[in-house]
Design a protein that fits this description.
One of its GO terms (biological process) is cellular response to nitric oxide. The chain is an alpha/beta fold. It has an eight-stranded mixed barrel with strand order 13-14-16-17-18-19-20-21, surrounded by five helices. Strands 2-1-5-4-3 form a five-stranded antiparallel β-sheet. α2 packs parallel to α4, α17 packs parallel to α19 and α19 packs parallel to α21. The structure holds ligand C2E.
């Protein structure tokens, strides 16, 4: 029961006590001994007065705990006094009671009238009753009892109405205040789509002057493009069996000033008097959307040249291949590598390197039609997609374009402080002859580019089957991988991750190395995709997990006692139903506490089977294992992953860190990622830190951890132990706490 309802209860109790007194006096004559009758009447009158007094105090919020403590002794004393009076002359009982009550009512009524608007009506009726009681007391004779009874009953009804109005108004005001104080917009719609309740925040969000203006509108009046059928369909979702709440949607609201507002809607069912309504919370997500758009752009636009990046290219090429397949056309992919770029970078610095890339990209872009695509694929690699070509013309068109590219590059570039000429090697692959999908076309164009490079600088080559040796190389890798675990050909190296603030070595990333007797040392970038294609990655990942945990177990009681080990996990491993058990067993077997293990995932992993991944990650988090998102910013970067998957660490990709000193764009992007990570309570690790300048900038930006050649290259376990020992000695500052 609410506070104000309790107040009414006090009054009700007072009213009942007075009625009981009346019954005892007028109906009890002859049935109860007179002495007892007198005392009970005195007691009822006092309880009645106390009820009215305390109810009034309560209404205006002035009833204190000590009032209640004194109530009983006061009632007993006062009732004794009244009993004494009635005892002297029991004819005083009706007029005396009416007078005493009248006084209390006049007092209570005047308090209510003067204190609060809501109770004015109640106070007036109470004063009226008080006056009537005093008048009756003065004139009461047994002949007028009936008149008194009718008069007082009418007034009582008026008081009750006043009371109901006051309490209802109080409850409604409280309800309105509560929903108005919500920081989110809030509305309740009925089955037909009409709005019944809305708060001020909702009105403000949607550009209305007050919540009142929204009441009675149809939801279709708020959302452009929303039809009545769609609004009905939305409601049906709340009636569906097994639906989980809140139901989350996003929508763009059209405001009255013509602007559009992106909003997240959280809908829940709400039943009132047996009727189902839909309660919708509206969250303004324009800021979030802006950041998402920024990340979206960052994930698709190359920060140095401003043209497409690798991811955007893959999307566009897939589209072009699909279009070409649908209408029997062709398209061509040109893989371009600038031959002397590294030397430019090393000799003249990153700024000159970036300027060269920008100039080269611009002159490539001049050669293209609006429908073609230009992308920076990697450091000094560009890809051109020539789209929508007539059947059997792609190869010739691509050759002409490659010649134009080589000529354009050979002309040289006037940079700010240097004149530089570069040569380009170009590989060509055409759809449908050299591949039927984007990955194959890029891979084959890449193979052709290597062939061009081998043939000398400034060459072009069209892909052919003979070049497939490289692809066959993948087959060779696949074959050699099969027995490599048993043959002990793998080992792990460890790369230090240090606290950006204190320099303390806090985490270590385990990286896989393969020294194949058949193929020689093989970088993970080459054999991991092959292991993923063949499914062998599961066995390999299990080996890495066990080895890494075993190594951390061996580091116990050393300077690396409480280090956290970070290992890369592929999508295949997460999809394996036994993965969580595998992790928990590896922890137990090697005596590691779960916080010492962090699993690194890429955004691709998160997207591929989002529902399953979410479940597995929830289980791993429940276990206490950390989850970190690798290469953030290069893929499909979306804020929703960060909140949806309960990650605890974000690794900022090397591509951004690399340019942080020279590119304003990379700098502000890293800044934005760090700020966003902070606001989501995530730990941030910057990858690929190669210079002290980068480390200093990142530390200043609030990045928590640093990893890269500037601190240490990936090294063997024993070397890392020495490295950590050397590093630990002079550190006196406490570890950074997030
Ligand atoms: N230029 C430059 N590079 C730096 C710097 N600091 C670290 N690196 C390199 O960046 C890579 C970081 O690992 P990653 O992003 O997880 O990327 C890893 C990871 O995706 C994958 N990988 C490595 N080990 C495993 C493994 O055990 N399992 C799985 N599934 N993937 C692995 O192979 C990728 C490449 O690994 P690595 O060749 O060892 O290359 C490592 C590391 O040697 C720096 O300052 N400058």
């Amino acid at each position: 029961m609410q506070r104000k309802e309790k107040h009414a209860l006090f009054w009700g109790a007072g009213q009942l006590a007075i009625m009981a007194g009346g019954i005892i006096w007028f109906g009890g004559a002859g049935l109860i001994p007179l002495e007892l009758q007198l005392y009970l009447c005195a007691l009822c009158l006092t309880v009645g007065m106390a009820g009215y007094w305390s109810g009034t105090q309560f209404f205006i919020g002035k009833l204190r705990a000590y009032h209640v403590r004194w109530m009983l002794p006061v009632i007993l004393t006062l009732s004794g006094f009244f009993y004494y009076l009635w005892h002297l002359n029991n004819a005083w009982l009706p007029p005396g009671s009416a007078a005493a009550l009248g006084l209390v009512m006049l007092w209570g009524g005047s308090r209510l009238v003067s204190v609060n608007n809501r109770y004015r009506w109640l106070g007036l009726t109470l004063m009226l009753r008080g006056g009537f009681n005093l008048f009756s007391a003065a004139s009461l004779s047994p002949d007028l009892y009936k008149v008194w009874f009718v008069g007082t009953s009418i007034l009582k009804v008026l008081t009750m109405l006043g009371l109901i109005y006051a309490v209802q108004d109080e409850i409604q005001q409280r309800y309105a205040r509560t929903i108005d104080s919500l920081s989110h917009g809030f509305l309740i719609r009925d089955r037909r789509g009409y709005i019944h309740v809305a708060n001020e925040r909702c009105a403000k969000l949607l550009g209305f002057n007050s919540a009142q203006e929204l009441i009675g509108l149809h939801v279709c009046d708020l959302l452009p493009g929303l039809t009545r059928e769609m609004a009905d369909h939305y409601f049906f979702r709340f009636e569906a069996d097994g639906a989980e709440y809140p139901i989350a949607d996003t929508a763009i609201f059209k405001l009255r000033n013509g602007n559009h507002l992106p909003v997240e809607l959280l809908g829940s069912p709400y039943v009132e008097r047996g009727r189902l309504y839909c309660l919708v919370q509206l969250l303004d997500i324009s800021e979030r959307k802006k950041k998402d758009d920024l990340l979206y752009q960052a994930a698709r636009v190359d920060p140095v040249t401003g043209y497409c990046n690798r991811h955007a290219l893959s999307v566009r090429l897939t589209e072009e291949v699909k279009k070409a397949a649908a209408v029997g056309r062709e398209c061509a992919v040109l893989f371009i590598d600038l031959d002397k770029f590294k030397r430019v970078n090393d000799s003249f610095g990153h700024a000159a390197g970036d300027e060269l890339l920008r100039n080269a990209a611009d002159s490539l872009h001049h050669l293209l039609r609006p429908t073609d695509v230009l992308a920076r694929f990697g450091g000094d690699e560009f890809i051109i997609v020539i789209a929508d070509l007539a059947p059997n013309s792609a190869e010739q068109m691509a050759i002409d374009c490659a010649d134009a590219v080589i000529a354009a590059m050979a002309k040289g570039f006037e940079l700010s402080y240097h004149a530089i000429s570069v040569t380009a090697s170009v590989g060509i692959a055409c759809y449908p002859h050299h591949g039927a999908d984007s990955d194959t076309l890029i891979r084959n164009a890449d193979i052709a580019m290597y062939a061009a490079k081998k043939a000398g600088r400034g060459e072009r080559r069209v892909f052919n089957d003979a070049m497939n040796a490289v692809a066959k190389n993948a087959l060779a890798i696949d074959g050699a991988l099969r027995d490599a675990i048993e043959a002990n050909e793998f080992y792990l190296v460890y790369q230090a991750i240090t606290n950006a603030h204190t320099g303390k070595l806090t985490k270590v990333e385990a990286l896989l190395r393969w020294n194949s007797p058949l193929l020689g040392p093989m970088p993970p970038d080459r054999f991991i995709p092959v292991a993923e294609d063949s499914g062998m990655i599961i066995a390999l990942g299990t080996w890495v997990l066990e080895q890494a945990c075993r190594q951390v177990g061996l580091w116990k009681h050393s300077v690396l006692d409480d280090v956290t080990i970070s290992i890369n996990v592929s999508a295949w491993q997460l999809a394996d139903p036994g993965f969580v058990t595998l992790v928990s067993q590896a922890l137990i077997r090697n005596g590691l506490s779960p916080h010492q293990l962090e699993l690194e995932l890429t955004e691709r992993v998160l997207i591929e089977d989002a529902a399953n991944v979410q479940t597995v990650l929830a289980q791993l988090r429940a276990l206490g294992v950390g989850i970190s998102l690798d290469d953030f910013g290069t893929g499909y970067s979306s804020l929703s992953y960060l909140t949806q998957f309960h990650l605890n660490t974000l690794k900022i990709d090397r591509a951004f860190v690399m340019d942080i000193e020279h590119s304003e764009r990379s700098n502000s992007l890293v800044h934005a990622i760090i700020a966003m990570g902070h606001s989501l309570g995530l730990q941030l690790v910057a990858e690929g830190v190669e210079t002290a300048g980068q480390a200093a900038i990142l530390e200043k930006m609030g990045c928590h951890y640093l990893q890269g050649y500037h601190i240490s290259r990936p090294i063997l376990a024993d070397d890392l132990l020495h490295f950590a020992g050397d590093r630990a000695a002079p550190q006196a500052q406490p570890d950074f706490v997030i």
